[in-house]
Amino acid sequence: MADGPVDPDFMLYSGGFFSDADKRLMSQIRSLSATELLVALYCHEMRHDPQHPAWPERDRFVLSKGHAAPGLYAVLAECGYLPAAELMALRKLDSRLQGHPTPDAPGVEVATGALGQGLSFAVGLALAARLKGAAWRTYVLLGDGEMHEGQVWEAAMTAAKYGLERLTAICDYNHFTQTGPIEVTKPLAPLAEKWRAFGWHTLEIDGHDFRQILSAFAVARQTAGRPTMIIANTIKGKGVSFLEHAAGWHGRAPNAEQAARALEEIG
């Protein structure tokens, strides 16, 4: 565990709420829809060792939606990869915790943030595990908006071609892009049918229900001969009433009153 408890503002760390002026452009709700998914992965599903981040037999995780880095850092701190106090160094010069994750941060496998590329990297990791005869699994978290990128579907075809059964992808399906509702910008529906057509074992769950999340991971581990896509239906800005299902907050900070209200609602 961490060298001290994560601050009660943990959920706001994961959503990017900071008072420093150089953090004002952080996306305010980019992590809240994925919080339960990240917690389930690191606290229940994956094999990993915070005291030995490079443990060869660890499961690998790729945060393809790199803009959710604050949520990943908060979970890494809770697990003990870094001090909780270091979360306040987010996006500062020379900090290990930049606005998008890099391997400078302990527990981070790859730099991400150019949307659409994370699944390709995860496919490479899964192929490497097969070539090595290794038992570790690969997990990748994608945003729904990045599925507008063609590279995602190229990687999906490759994973299916090689039957990468130790690869599990999760889509944070919160139905919003940076500019507005995904149904307006470029609809993805029927999303599950698309992934099934690309040869993936596809599950649909409530991404805020731990029982459903962990059950889906268990099913993925038992799936043979093909990769698994878990479409997690989520709520953008989950837990903060004025942020839920709200556009316009991707690069906008709350004022002091809004931040206090958000902290009170999250508890």
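Above is the first protein from milestone M3; the second protein from the same milestone is given next.
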Amino acid sequence: MSPLVLGAGKGVHRSIYRVLDNFVGSDVALSSHAPDRDLVGGGWLAGAGVFSLTGVGDVDQTTGGAAATNVYIETDISDCTIELVYKTGDGDDYGGIVFRATDGDSNMEFFINPAQNNTYVGKNVNGSRNTLSFTGMTLATATEYTLKVILLGTSIKAYVDGVLKIDINDATEQASTKHGIWMWTTDTFSRWDSFKVWK
């Protein structure tokens, strides 16, 4: 269950969001957009590629390339839960969550790939990508999925629509505290929404 935002509703969960962004606003680059909640206050940081608000309450990728692209936000916590809604595109697109990022070339990633019907966790070290684990799952194009990663020490648990898909241990980037959005190459049809980070 997701935590309640401080001051919302009748009760307050002991875990409050470090970051909350529903991406409401005009069509601007994500790096120029202020999240709904950002306890650290640094805003979105460009990793690789350009992501922008669509103006209708979500985010798309406007500039990419022939490699992984990402944008992230400083949270000051490496052990946390990260969740977002990812809408698949209409082709060979892979998108999801970047986590424990040092920069655009050194980070970890959890994504789904409807073209190959699998979920995937990998790491990037100075631009060199390595697969840590993947598992099969039937996925559809132009469909929304809720992706979640739970990080605790070396433990990495990755979920799709509340179902645990990958459960591994890896110490890469374990102390890094930037988390955000990940995409492979350019796909203007994919969308991201409802980004949340909590302890």
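Note on the second protein: Residues 5-12 have pLDDT under 50 and may be disordered.
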